[in-house]
Amino acid sequence: MYTCMYYRQQELNRKEAQLAGQHSMLNRHHDEIQDIEYKNLAAIHKLRDEQLRKQHSTELQNQQEYTDRQQKELRKRHISQTKLLPRSINVRKMSARLPNTLSKHNWCVKSIYISSKRFVLNNKSVLKGIAL
């Protein structure tokens, strides 16, 4: 009877040791899997942040290139308008003066051009008696 109980006790101890070993192995596996998951999540977050930074820098670079192109175009337009500005100012001044002087003499002028700081009238019949 004691021998039977002795074998039972040994069997229970062995099963307890097996369960403890299985339990420690499951805990170790759980910890390892959790570590792997954390590493993968960290890698995913790192890739996501890197991709977001690259996208942001690319968009910023594209915006700066677009702004530079627009500024160059604006400068070109401004330079071309600035080159024409003295001529257009003179034409405006003279066109403001000429209708008054021409209306006194009832002249009909088709167009006015500025050439070497003198006015050349396009209508030759108007030039009778005027020395340029």
Overview of this protein structure:
With 132 residues, the protein is mainly α. The chain has one domain (2-105). It is built from 1 helix and 2 strands; from the N terminus they run H-E-E. It has one helix at 2-105, and strands spanning 112-115, 118-121. The chain is rod-shaped, with a radius of gyration of 48 Å. The termini are far apart. Mean pLDDT is 78; it is low at 102-132.
Blueprint of the fold:
Blueprint: H1 2-105, E1 112-115, E2 118-121
Antiparallel strand pairs: 1-2
Note poorly predicted spans. Answer: 102-132
Number of domains: 1
Strand segment count: 2
Apparent shape:
rod-shaped
As a percent range, the share of strand residues is 5-15%
Q: In this structure, how is the largest beta sheet organized?
A: 2 strands, antiparallel
Intertermini distance: 147 Å
Specify Rg, calculated over alpha carbons: 48 Å
**Strand/helix succession:** HEE
H/I helix tally = 1
Task: Give the overall average pLDDT.
Answer: 78
Classify the secondary structure makeup into a structural class.
Answer: mainly alpha
For the largest sheet, list the strands in their spatial order: 1-2
Percent of residues in helices comes to over 70%
Task: Give structural attributes.
mainly alpha; two-stranded antiparallel sheet; 2 strands; rod-shaped; disordered C terminus
Tell me briefly what this model is.
The chain is 79% helix and 6% strand.
